[in-house]
Design a protein that fits this description.
By secondary structure, this protein is an alpha/beta fold. The protein is built from 12 helices and 10 strands. Bound molecules: S-adenosylmethionine.
């Protein structure tokens, strides 16, 4: 039978009932609040998943989501609906205060500094942190012994990319200086690979911020940037509380430029530096 194009398109489009089911699934599984009118977003991002997973319609995809039996369907939907936008040294100022205030403070605290990049996307954030550390060590070779970075994300495909440490030229051009490109990457035709000296101190792991992350241990500094904006106030409050619990006394917390903890907790003092800010656990 030849299907007319309008019918094929309709079968990929989301009905209100399906939209509500997807919305519920996203909020419960990863905290993302979709809003009332994002049907176009769901259609554009999930019609690809419908095809890739071999479903004949959006309805079939939603039914598979609802049964919860096929983890790969759930992961593909989360992957497709999360925003993975990132860049090297994003916003600059967090990396300046890391270099100029936080690392000097942490190096005075002794062995085993631990830094967590809590929604690391394709890895630019933890690799940027690691480059700042490497620069710091160039001038002070024996400081920060045992320093390590844990990089986590909910998305297995993002983590896979991050772990490879291979970036195409287009991604390399977003925020990285030529100096750092030459110093910390092996350059190939069309792509670059992070050098082991930057890669080796990072461990990658799948973590959903909505669930417990106590297994990671405690940190001196946490980057949790540009992810809380997608969550409800209730989830933000809960995550900020658990991030505070995951910090060692006097530990530091970075959020994204549009994110704030002011209305959620008074456990931090705010340090302002070069147009940016970092929260310090009291
Ligand atoms: C916009 S990116 C931010 C990347 C980086 N932190 C930065 O600021 O450039 C948001 C990341 O949060 C991740 N994410 C979304 N929901 C999450 C959750 N519940 N737990 C952990 N990570 C999540 C997404 O997979 C995505 O990689």
């Amino acid at each position: 039978m030849v299907m007319n194009p309008a019918t094929a398109e309709q079968r990929q489009s989301v009905t209100q009932q399906e939209y509500d089911a997807i919305r519920r699934f996203l909020e419960e599984s990863c905290g993302i609040v979709l809003g009332d009118n994002k049907h176009y977003l769901v259609n554009s991002r999930l019609s690809r998943v419908v095809k890739e997973q071999g479903f004949s319609s959006m309805g079939e995809l939603v039914r598979a989501l609802n049964t919860g039996r096929d983890r790969s369907v759930q992961v593909s939907v989360i992957d497709a609906m999360t925003t993975n936008e990132t860049s090297w040294f994003r916003d600059n100022h967090p990396f300046e205060s890391l270099r100029e205030i936080i690392l000097p403070d942490l190096s005075a605290r002794g062995y085993g500094t631990a830094i967590w990049s809590a929604a690391c996307s394709s890895g630019q954030e933890p690799y940027s942190i690691s480059m700042v550390i490497q620069e710091y060590l160039r001038n002070r070779p024996n400081s920060l012994p045992g320093i390590r970075i844990v990089a986590t994300d909910i998305s297995p495909s993002m983590l896979q990319e991050a772990e490879k440490g291979v970036f195409e030229n287009a991604a390399m051009s977003r925020g990285l200086s030529d100096e750092f490109k030459m110093r910390y990457f092996d350059l190939f035709d069309g792509y670059a690979k992070v050098k082991p000296v930057i890669r080796e101190r990072i461990t990658f792991k799948e973590i959903n911020l909505l669930r417990s992350f106590t297994s990671l241990g405690r940190f001196d500094c946490i980057f949790c940037r540009n992810v809380l904006i997608y969550f409800s106030a209730e989830n933000k409050r809960d995550i900020v509380k658990r991030l505070a619990d995951a910090l060692k006394p006097g530990g530091y917390l970075y959020l994204g430029g549009t994110e704030s903890i002011a209305s959620f907790t008074d456990r931090f003092e705010t340090l302002r530096y070069r147009g940016g800010m970092v929260y310090k656990l009291k």
